[in-house]
Structure formats: structure tokens, C-alpha cells
Amino acid sequence: MLLFGNLTPQMAVATILAVLIGMTVHEFAHNYVGYLMGDPTPKLQGRLTLDPRVHINPVGFLMFVLIGFGILGQAPINPQRMRDPRWGFLAAVAAGPLSNLLLAIVFAIPIRLMSIAPFTLYKIIFEGNTSSPTDFLVMLLGQLVFWNVLLFIFNLLPVFPIDGWHIVLALLPPSLAYEWQRHRQTTNYILLGLILLSFIQIPGLDILGMVIFRPVYSIVLSLLGIF
Prior knowledge:
By secondary structure, the chain is an all-alpha fold.
């Protein structure tokens, strides 16, 4: 669906800011941990920064704005230049989604401290019912929690080119890792198929929605104290 299909202007702004922040920290985490593991590429390319302009994939971000899906950023880390190519690469890849989970927890803390009634909190964050600057701040914090949890869950999918595919690759023994690499294009087709099914909206066929959004909402509602 279109990102701005049913959103208020305030919700659209909060969504864009939340995704931009989540993407920037995600890609920075990949690059920073890759650098710590011995790969000089992130430093040589000037990617050890939280400037979103360095990390953003313009075409992918535009696709996200238009259709709700796109490759938001990029982190050109090179495992062959790390001290330990296998485990160093695993740490660098896992750092991305784990940084999003950490961000979600951090942004949920001030919301919990505000002690807002669960029903009111839900209306502000998920329906965009804002009537004051404070409400907008709460909505922005809530969207930061939601999108960072979404980035965490989505990037754990074991399909190429998502982080989850690379995590599985690093964890497998060499013989199985070779087979996993042989079929990476197949997993890419699976991902594309699941995305297309989510747009068709046939009852019972939105597998991607079930795999992603059910755990996302469970985690988000738990972090925000909405039950």
C-alpha cells in the first residue's frame, strides 16, 4: 500500500523521521562493528558517521515512500579484510538489527514514564490522534519504537539479501554454507513473491504480514505497555 495512503501529515512526518533514524543507526552499526572487526572499508569510505546522507539508498528510500517497501541503506563491509572473516562478519551483520531493537527499547522508556492510559496511547501512536506538541512527541517516539522493531524483525528474515540470510550463512559449517550460497537467488525470489502477495491482499496469503507484523505488534505493545 502507499505509505501516505491514510496518514495524517503529522503521522507521515513521524514515519519518515522514524525510518530515517532507524535506517541510519542500522547501517552505522554494520559499518562501525565491521571496522572494529578489522575491515578498514567503512573508515575509508567515510561511513563511520551518523549522517543519514552517507548511508541512505536514494532509490530504495524513494520506493519506500511511494510503495511502502525499499532497500533503505547500504553498508559495504568486506569480511575478507577482517581479522576473523566468519565471526567478524557475523558480528557486523547482526549489529544492524540488534541496534534497532536497542533503539526501540530506549525510545519506549520515556513513553512508559509518561504513564499515559493505554487506549489514549494507542490512539495517538497508531491512529495519529494528536492535539498538542506533546501528543506529536509521543507519536514520534511511538513510531520510533514501531519502525525500529519492524527493522529488527524484517532484517532477521533468512532470505537474500536481508541480514538474516548472511547471519545463517556465517553460522553454518562450511559444507552447508556452500549449499546455502548456491540457493541464495532462490531465497531472493521467495522474498519478492512474499512482497507481491502482501500487495495483492488475498485473505490467507499475506504470509509476510503474518511472519513480520504479528511479532512486531506483540513486541511493540509489550514495550509500550499496551495490552
